[in-house]
Amino acid sequence: MSGYHDNIFTKIIDGEIPFHKVYEDEHTLAFLDIGPLSKGHTLVIPKERKAALHELSDESAAAIGRVLPRLCRAVMQATGADAYNVLQNNGSAAHQAVLHVHFHIIPKYSDAGLGMTWEAGTLDDASAKRLADQMRASLGADGS
Q1: Cβ-proximal residues to 83 (8 Å cutoff; 6+ apart), any chain
Q2: What confidence tier does 144 reach under pLDDT thresholds 50, 70, 90?
Q3: Number of structural domains found in the chain
Q4: Gap between the Cα atoms of 95 and 89, Å rounded
Q5: pLDDT for the residue numbered 20
Q6: DSSP bridge pairs for 103
Q7: Are 49 and 140 in contact (CB under 8 A)?
Q8: End-to-end Cα spacing for the chain
Q9: What is the predicted pLDDT for the residue at 114?
Q10: What sections of 27-107 are H helices per DSSP?
Q11: How much is the pLDDT for 3?
């Protein structure tokens, strides 16, 4: 998932195409989705040009983390929605259409919003221990 290429979000960041801005700071930009799943569907992007979340700098990731809850509150207040989904996909196989990190805030109403199914699997203790050990090793620490 490397090799970032210019896309619609790059053009928005560079001011080359119009958009409906909701929020902007040094590291992030939020705007209304032009193909919304529901009223108030908002996109939150880092200004850092990376395709996937794991490629972001800690600084950009922290900036998104700081602003995302505030934007969720603003979307809920402006739309009157009392439920919402935050969606973030990485890679084409995971349904990422624009290869620039972005978060969707999608208000949920009885007749609109994100529809999905969840087919939960199982995880046995031995597999869980092995997987957690591998992840901690990848982090280079005890995982704390």
Answers
A1: 107, 108, 113
A2: low
A3: 1
A4: 6
A5: 95
A6: 44
A7: no
A8: 27
A9: 72
A10: 58-79
A11: 65
Domain membership of residue 18 (yes or no) is: yes
Determine the pLDDT at residue 88: 96
d(CA 69, CA 74): 9
Q: Which of 27, 41, 102, 104 is catalytic?
A: 102
Instruction: Write out the two tokens for 33.
Output: 């989705």
Indicate the Cα dihedral angle 41, 47, 48, 51, nearest 10°.
Answer: 30
Is 102 catalytic? The answer is yes
Per the domain annotation, does 36 fall within a domain? Answer: yes
Taking residues 79-107, what's their average pLDDT?
93
* Residue 38 resides in a domain: yes
Integer Cα distance of 91 and 78 in angstroms: 31
Residue 127 resides in a domain: no
Which CATH number belongs to the domain containing residue 27 in this structure?
Answer: 3.30.428.10
DSSP string spanning 5-51? Answer: ---HHHHHHTT-S---EEEE-SSEEEEE-SS-SSTT-EEEEESS--S
pLDDT class of 138 with cuts at 50, 70, 90: confident
